[in-house]
Specification:
Elements: H1 2-14, H2 23-37, H3 40-44, E1 49-53, E2 62-68, E3 71-81, H4 100-114, H5 118-129, H6 138-156, E4 162-170, H7 178-194, E5 197-203, E6 216-218, E7 220-221, E8 223-225, E9 227-232, H8 247-258, E10 279-285, E11 297-306, H9 311-344, E12 356-359, H10 360-368, H11 372-386, H12 393-408, E13 414-419, E14 427-428, H13 433-453, E15 459-461
Parallel strand pairs: 3-4, 3-5, 6-15, 12-13
Antiparallel strand pairs: 1-2, 2-4, 7-14, 8-11, 9-11, 9-13, 10-11
Length: 467
């Protein structure tokens, strides 16, 4: 009974496209609200269902709050996001990306024809097994929302209820987290109105992993920052590579140092588990057209996860890596200039550049020191960018730093380090009485039931990774 209901809800939710920052995301909240409004419970209790627009948001999108009321004030929240990453990766199967039943046979057919790697063959076996549902957002995270809705529905059908359940479906998890940041503020008004106190919250998102690793309950979440670096080079003609510094080289050297480097993770033994090492999420030069001059500027963004480090720790770490990358890139230029001199006899020598590495705060101070006119231009640009709904948070950061670099007269080779997205702090269940009571309930419920009904038990991890 549970399986069929969750499956039906997952199909229904998945078929509604809701890619972040699209019209589908805007319409999904009202659509879900209308679906829940038809439930018998909410038809007779419309005050228990709310559709709230996100706060201080450049885009129109909505959070759905649903509450099933029982005895007492204690409540548990079931939380999840409904926005998704884009569907471009499905290539020619993109029209079927949100239709799991139509997508599955097509994916199997493609893998039967094109599978080459061990991972491809495992995926083919999984899809053939019938145990998996394909489609954008079935995992992240409409399948989780479906579980929450099924629990809410079952809870509402009980003749006598102890406690309260609150279901929360938010937009914009994949970009700026406007949905949940708004929901926290809106809950501060909703909970007193509903006469309940929130005791715990459960994130309905599904983890990743194979076998037993994919069947776990996490008791917290990893911290995340998005350190990003704006590089300023010294443009030169392609026929004279040693007369300048290619910003693309500076960016490539930093990425080489950072990508999947375990040494940049938490100190050994600092946490119960080991966070995945950093990865590059974005790397590009900032030119807008082709010419034969080397790129003047470049940009990199890195996903850095931590269980123990603070933002200040990670800023210091990335400043050190950026300085080392700049020095290494310039040494490479010197070495290759000397090698070219030997083979070409061209008497070529690389310049002895002195690189600069700044934080955004330092660059902004330099730009503002240019006087009131520079300050006014920066302020006007910030207001214009804040109103531009076509920009994501990285694009906004890029434009601000480029403008500040112009105002400050920043000469390359240089690098400016910032956090191009908000900081997500580590969350730990803790050791207090409420945490212990919650853990006991999880142990008596999830773990015990899973052990009695399934061959593979549910594992328990201290912290979940945030991608």
């Amino acid at each position: 009974m549970w399986f069929e209901r969750v499956r039906a809800l997952t199909l229904s939710l998945t078929r509604q496209r809701s890619v972040t920052n699209t019209e589908g995301e805007t319409s999904f909240g009202p659509w879900l609200y209308d679906q829940l409004a038809e439930w018998p419970y909410f038809r007779t209790r419309p005050e228990c269902l709310r559709l709230e627009r996100t706060l201080d948001d450049r885009r129109e999108r909505y959070t759905v709050f649903a509450r099933v009321h029982g005895a007492g004030r204690r409540a548990v929240a079931l939380c999840g996001h409904y926005d998704t990453v884009d569907v471009d990766g499905y290539a020619d199967l993109e029209p079927y990306a949100t239709d799991p039943e139509a997508l599955l046979p097509r994916l199997i057919e493609r893998l039967e024809r094109e599978a080459r790697s061990a991972a491809d063959l495992r995926a083919l076996a999984d899809l053939r097994s019938g145990d998996y549902m394909a489609g954008r957002a079935t995992l992240d995270m409409k399948g989780g929302l479906a579980v929450g809705l099924a629990v809410l529905e079952r809870f509402a059908a009980q003749p006598q209820l102890e406690g309260n359940l609150v279901f929360i479906a938010t937009p914009d998890e994949e970009d700026s987290s406007n949905g949940m940041r708004s929901a926290v503020r809106q809950l501060a008004e909703l909970l007193p109105e509903w006469g309940i106190d929130l005791e715990a919250a459960i994130n309905l998102d599904s983890g990743v992993g194979e076998g037993d690793d994919g069947k776990a309950v996490f008791l917290g979440s990893v911290g995340k920052v998005l350190p990003s670096v704006f590089f300023v080079g010294r443009p030169t003609h392609a026929g004279a590579p040693f007369d300048g510094v290619n910003a693309a080289l500076l960016a490539a050297e930093l990425t080489r140092r950072v990508e999947a480097n375990p040494a940049l993770g938490d100190p050994p033994g600092a946490a119960e588990e080991v966070a995945p090492p950093p990865v590059t999420l974005y790397q590009t030069d900032r030119r807008s057209r082709y010419d034969v001059t080397t790129p003047a500027t470049a940009w990199c963004s890195y996903n850095v996860l931590t269980y123990t480090r603070t933002p200040a720790d990670m800023l210091d770490m990335m400043l050190g890596e950026t300085r080392a990358a700049m020095d290494a890139a310039l040494r490479t230029l010197e070495t290759r200039a000397a090698a070219y001199d030997r083979v070409a006899g061209a008497a070529v020598h690389a310049h002895a550049w002195t690189p600069q590495v700044l934080t955004w705060a330092q660059l902004e101070a330099q730009a503002r020191s240019r006087g009131p006119a520079a300050i006014a231009r920066m302020s006007a640009l910030r207001d214009m960018l804040a109103a531009d709904a076509t920009l994501d948070i990285i694009g906004l950061s890029q434009r601000l730093i480029e403008a500040a670099a112009r105002e400050a007269g920043l000469a390359g080779p240089a690098a400016v380090l910032c956090f191009a997205s908000q900081y997500y702090p580590q969350v730990d269940l803790g050791q207090g009485p409420r945490a212990k009571a919650f853990l006991a309930a999880i142990t008596a419920g999830t773990y015990a039931i899973a052990a009695s009904q399934h061959a593979r038990p549910i594992a328990r991890h201290f912290l979940a990774s945030r991608t």
